[in-house]
Amino acid sequence: MSLSKSECERYQRQLLIESWDQERLTNARVLVAGVGGLGGISAAYLAAAGVGHLRLCDSDRVEPSNLNRQILFTTEDIGQPKAVLVGKRLSAQNPEIHIEAISEKMTETNASKLVLGCDLIIDGLDTHSDRLILNQTSFDLNIPFIYGAINEWLGQVSSFNPPKTACLACLMPGELQTSKPAPAFGALPGVIGSLQATLALRYLMTGENPVSNTLLIFHADALTFETVTFERRAGCGVCGKTVPPGR
Amino acid sequence: MTIFLKAGGQLRPMLKPDMDHYTRKIEIEEGMTVGEILEEISLDSAYVALIHVDGRLKDLSFRPSNGQTITLQPPVSGG
């Protein structure tokens, strides 16, 4: 594949990186489920890097309480649909890529349709129950899923691609007891969303998953990282069942 | 024997740390499970999303040994 002059200029600095594969990025299709704190950041870096097709899915509208951490939005955006706003913003950032903005809530009914045709899923959701829907869909359609979550000063990242790895339900199968509204340190989605984008770009170019069966935990209050390793759970309600046909 | 429980986030005030900002020192009977220890200190395990020791995932049935630190991870689900 040959890059246009404008693409060569735009991607010049990353093309200098040894083994960088712009063609794979250009041909990639990624679903970003939720474009608030985490998804907004990861989508912005994927767009900037030239991921060829981004599908942005979010049913929320911008609220004043989003603005401490969802830095793609301004005060003037309050009340506007997030997916459409992020779509416009990223199209302006990189007109070389194709962006679909879908203002729908992901449910068990529409998840497969939203994920279908994508090479990778980025989790920018804000409830564990929605993440479990995404995890089930990721497993059913055999599409890898890059997980991220935040609360107060804590951030978590992992990547799931069963049956090669455990899935989210192996790690946290049920509902989580959380306080509402959830406390959120504003810069934390920047760190975690950037790590998700890093994992996504590495995966799309190389197929590597450096956090396979590993949860990376960031403590923003202590500026420390720790890792927790885990295994596929035999009794997992998602990936512990019969392997779908074609695996 | 002595063990150390460590927690951050919304679990920290429930744990009532006494060693440092995150850690509580506890004397337990040998052979107790993490679930039994949490019950003894009246910490509702429903608020514990993950348990890990030395970088490996454990569960409520894990039996700590003397001097071990058990980390209790609170639910992290925002975005």
Structure description:
The complex is a heterodimer of chains A (247) and B (79). Chain A has helices at 5-10, 12-15, 22-27, 37-49, 82-93, 111-115, 128-141, 168-171, 188-206; strands spanning 29-33, 53-57, 98-102, 120-123, 145-151, 154-160, 214-219, 224-229. With 247 residues, chain A is α/β, with parallel strands linked by helices. Chain A has a single domain, classed as NAD(P)-binding Rossmann-like Domain (Rossmann fold, 3-Layer(aba) Sandwich), CATH 3.40.50. Chain A has an 8-stranded mixed β-sheet with strand order 3-2-1-4-5-6-7-8, with helices on both faces. In chain A, helix 4 (37-49) packs parallel to helix 5 and helix 4 (37-49) crosses helix 9. The radius of gyration of chain A is 17 Å and the shape is globular. With 79 residues, chain B is α+β, with helices and mostly antiparallel strands. Chain B has one domain (2-73): Ubiquitin-like (UB roll) (Roll). Chain B has 2 helices and 5 strands. Chain B has helices at residues 12-15, 34-40, and strands at residues 2-7, 23-27, 50-53, 56-58, 69-73. In chain B, strands 2-1-5-3-4 form a 5-stranded mixed β-sheet, with no helix packed on it. In chain B, a hairpin with a 2-residue loop joins strand 3 (50-53) and strand 4 (56-58). The longest helix of chain B is centred in the middle third of the chain and has 7 residues, at 34-40. The mean pLDDT of chain B is 96. Classes of the chains: A alpha/beta (247), B alpha+beta (79). The interface between A and B is medium-sized, with 41 and 18 residues.
